[in-house]
Each structure stands twice: as C-alpha cells, then as structure tokens.
C-alpha cells in the first residue's frame, strides 16, 4: 500500500541546535498514527514540516499527489476579541451547519449553542470540538491533531478517541495525533512513533482498559527517554 506521506531522514536545525535529527517514517492510508515524546522533542516541528509551514534542513518529504491536509492546533485562541459568530467563521470556510453536525457535538442543542456564539467567547473545550468537526468536514486525506486531549479528563479522552475511530472508519482517512503523554494513546492506533529529536522507537499499543466504552491504550517504550537529548 502506497503511503500518503513518507519522511526520509528529516532533520531541522535552529541557530545551531538540532531539533529534529534524521527522522524517517510513513503514514499509510486509513490509519491512526500517534507521535509521542517529551516537551521540546521536535513533535510540532515535524508537524509543521508535514504541513509545509516550515522546511527541513535536510532530508525529504514525499507526499501523495494532491494530498489534502487538515490541521487542528493546540490551544487555539483568537488573539483579539473580534466579533465573529461561529456560524460566519464556518461559512467563511465553505461549510454549513449540516456539514459539522453529528461529528463531535452530542446533540442539536449543543451544536446550536456553538453555532450562535461569538468565536472568542467559546471555552477551550468547545473551540477544540469545533475545530475538530471542521477538520473532519473538510474531507481530508490526513488530519494532524496537535495535543488534542490536553486538559481533558479520562471520560472526555475516551469519547474523543471514540470519535476519532468512528470518523477514520467512516471517511477512510488517516490521522496523526501529536501528544506529550508518553504512555496513554488511542488503543486502535496503527503505529506509535516515539520522538526525542530522533526516532527512539515505534510500535503498536495494547488495550489499557478492557471495556467496550474505552478506547484508551498504553504504549510500552523500548528505550530511556533521557538518552541522546540535544542541548
């Protein structure tokens, strides 16, 4: 199966510091991928290189022709309190209310509440839910989610992972989740990639909670996260 994206020996340097060091991996179609590592390990830099926001110092990124990407940043917040209704924000992206319904929001009342709110007044949780719904509604080949479970309790994390798995199956898309949580990941992930500037190890998680409701898994590492840290 031809990958959507392949990174080959990607490195990135800032002012003489090596942030990403010779990282290689593939993202295949209709897969869930988790990029884990401690803060400052280079995870967000890899995401920016994938998105084309930044270029690598060396190495190569090979993408499928006409690859369509969506991105949900961590902690998105409008810098200024610009009076923009969420409905207008969504319309500006070429979407309507029906496009984002039945993806993230629990019911029509919750969706109506967000739809009729000013964007800058939404809580962090609602902002993340809205951006996630928009990302799925754009029908991409690959969605990159930067720390999407930050500040969520375990029940909310379980529900989030349930949505991810449902949409992966429904849309046949791929997902790359970036997380600093080194162990707790989505249990149905096809690959976990552990980064500490270089690629430390990779593999599949095992189920953490043996219940029908939970989709949380645990990834066991095969290395010490403190080795090979660039200063």
List the helices and strands and how they pair.
Layout lengths: L4 E10 L2 E11 L4 E5 L6 H9 L6 E6 L5 E4 L13 H7 L4 H4 L7 H8 L8 H14 L4 E5 L7 H18 L2 E6 L4 E3 L4 E6 L1 E6 L2 E2 L8 E3 L13
Condensed summary:
With 231 residues, the chain is an alpha/beta fold. The chain has helices at residues 43-51, 86-92, 97-100, 108-115, 124-137, 154-171, and strands spanning 5-14, 17-27, 32-36, 58-63, 69-72, 142-146, 174-179, 184-186, 191-196, 198-203, 206-207, 216-218.
Low-confidence stretches: 227-231
Strand share of the residues?
25-35%
Number of DSSP E strands: 12
Please write the string of helix (H) and strand (E) elements.
EEEHEEHHHHEHEEEEEE
Largest sheet: 6 strands, mixed
Structural class comes to alpha/beta
Helix content: 25-40%
- From the spread of the alpha carbons, the general shape counts as globular
CATH fold category name of the largest domain: Rossmann fold
CATH H level of the largest domain: which superfamily? P-loop containing nucleotide triphosphate hydrolases
CATH architecture of the largest domain: 3-Layer(aba) Sandwich
Instruction: Using the coordinates above, name the CATH class of the largest domain.
Output: Alpha Beta
Number of domains: 2
Strand order of the largest sheet: 5-6-7-3-9-10
End-to-end Cα distance: 38 Å
What would the average pLDDT be, to the nearest integer? 85
Radius of gyration over C-alpha positions, nearest whole angstrom: 18 Å
Q: How many H/I helical runs?
A: 6
């Amino acid at each position: 199966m031809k990958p959507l994206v392949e990174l080959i020996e990607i490195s990135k340097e800032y002012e003489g510091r090596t942030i990403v060091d010779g990282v290689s991996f593939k993202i295949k179609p209709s897969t869930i991928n988790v990029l884990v590592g401690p803060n400052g390990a280079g995870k967000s830099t890899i995401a920016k290189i994938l998105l084309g926001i930044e270029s690598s110092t060396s190495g190569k990124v090979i993408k499928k022709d006409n690859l369509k990407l969506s991105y949900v940043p961590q902690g998105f917040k409008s810098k200024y309190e610009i009076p923009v209704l969420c409905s207008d924000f969504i319309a500006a992206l070429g979407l309507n209310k029906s496009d984002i319904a039945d993806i993230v929001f629990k019911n029509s009342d919750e969706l109506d509440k967000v739809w009729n709110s000013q964007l800058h007044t939404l809580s962090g949780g609602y902002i993340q839910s809205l951006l996630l719904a928009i990302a799925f509604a754009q029908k991409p080949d690959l969605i990159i989610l930067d720390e999407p479970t930050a500040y969520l309790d375990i029940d909310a994390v379980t529900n989030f992972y349930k949505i991810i798995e449902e949409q992966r199956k429904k849309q046949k898309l791929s997902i790359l989740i970036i997380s600093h949580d080194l162990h707790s990941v989505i249990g149905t992930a096809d690959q976990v990639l552990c980064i500490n500037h270089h690629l430390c190890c990779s593999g599949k998680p095992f189920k953490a909670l043996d219940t029908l409701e939970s989709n949380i898994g645990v990834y066991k590492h095969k290395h010490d996260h403190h080795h090979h840290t660039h200063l």
